[in-house]
Amino acid sequence: MIVEIVIMDKEDSFLVKLDEEQASIWRNVIPFETELNVWKEEVYFSTPVELKLSKDDLVYRVVPGRVYYWPPGKAMCLFYGLTEAYTPVAPIGQYVGPLTSLRTVESGDKAIVKEHCIYDKYADIVQGLEQRGYLVGTPLSDGTRIIVASKNIGRYRLSFNIYVEDYGYHIESDELLPYLGDYNSIRILHYLKELLKDSRLLRADVSEENSIVITSGINKEDLWNAIEELEQYYPILIKILWNI
What we know:
With 244 residues, the protein is α+β, with helices and mostly antiparallel strands. 19% of the residues lie in helices and 37% in strands. It folds into 2 domains: 2-115, Cyclophilin; 120-242, Yope Regulator, Chain: A, CATH 3.30.1460.10. β5 and β6 form a beta hairpin.
């Protein structure tokens, strides 16, 4: 079951894939309204759910991309950086798509939490991504439905957005690094461009949010080729960046 958290005043939403044993619990209480909060690199919000947890259900360290339940606040917690939980939490699901989308959330944003339905127009692409092992959904971005996908490749989490255009598709990965416009950012961006010179469809780029990302602007026939190249190059680039 995928839950969609829709920010009412922004026409944006984000998605959580609940673990199988959690689905029936949350289905009984949605939809519900809530208020979003931001703490360090975490978005959390209160829920009507009160999980019965044992000490063994709780963890003291979190993994970006996993979604957790915080018992003291009956809250769902989404971690998008290196922040740790304030007190122990219980894993309940996974975030679907690029984690940097959570940076647009502001404390006080009003949201409605509901079950997510795949946008029919994108069903074929969603099915193809699911067959490749991705978690996939079609959330809102500025009022328009887009495709988001994520999966683990070894120790690395690959995630990206697909924007559907009349001419084809635009793929944009999650942030590799912030782009600050300084010497170091420019040096790294040029280095990534050089590493991707043998790729036919991928390029190192800067997003509208000033992140260094991997993008591909392609026609419809090249969609799966671009995703295959992204799966090939992304773990290599991340490993190199960690060693710079």
